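wait is this the right file?? whatever heres the structure
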């Protein structure tokens, strides 16, 4: 496997951290990256994302395209396998790691992922001990956060989740691709 697509994606992620004000304020791009071996693994959503022409990305097309280009060599996660979620969700939800466990690099400073959901999909309420920032890279989604009203986010917009704050996401008539960054409690 060539790492060229991932090297380009890493450059685009660094650029996003340097230039997007919310992302820059959330955390700088890590300076302690260590390359790790990753074995490509696909889920049905990986194939759907590769051909999804509805992923509009005003202002973030290069970032979106870098995530799509790395998709064929990514280690797509089966985060909810065996959880009882319906097959329809499992087939239309996808996530892979860039920096963090299962990604192409490891850092003690942050972890980051790509999340892809087809149109018309509900990502159930969940939470994690890490603080989290979603940056919508393409498409659109309705974001829900415990204690706050729902909001619809498009390319370039963000949603911050405090440690252990329940949150959910839903796509309506458009798919979504989100860059998800975690800081703190990475263990």
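ok assuming it is, sequence goes like this
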């Amino acid at each position: 496997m060539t790492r060229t697509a991932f090297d380009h994606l890493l450059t685009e992620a660094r650029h996003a951290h340097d230039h997007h004000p919310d992302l820059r304020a959330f955390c700088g791009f890590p300076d302690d990256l260590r390359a790790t071996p990753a074995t490509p693994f696909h889920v049905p959503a990986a194939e759907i994302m590769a051909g999804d022409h509805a992923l509009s990305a005003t202002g973030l097309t290069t970032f979106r395209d870098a995530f799509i280009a790395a998709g064929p060599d990514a280690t797509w996660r089966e985060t909810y396998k065996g959880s009882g979620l319906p097959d329809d969700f499992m087939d239309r939800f996808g996530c892979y790691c860039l920096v963090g466990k299962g990604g192409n690099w490891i850092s003690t400073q942050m972890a980051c992922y790509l999340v892809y959901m087809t149109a018309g999909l509900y990502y159930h309420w969940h939470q994690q001990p890490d603080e989290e920032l979603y940056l919508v890279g393409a498409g659109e989604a309705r974001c829900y956060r415990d204690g706050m009203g729902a909001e619809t986010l498009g390319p370039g917009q963000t949603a911050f989740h405090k440690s252990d704050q329940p949150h959910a996401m839903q796509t309506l008539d458009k798919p979504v691709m989100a860059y998800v960054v975690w800081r703190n409690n990475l263990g």
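The chain has a mean pLDDT of 94. so i think its the right one actually
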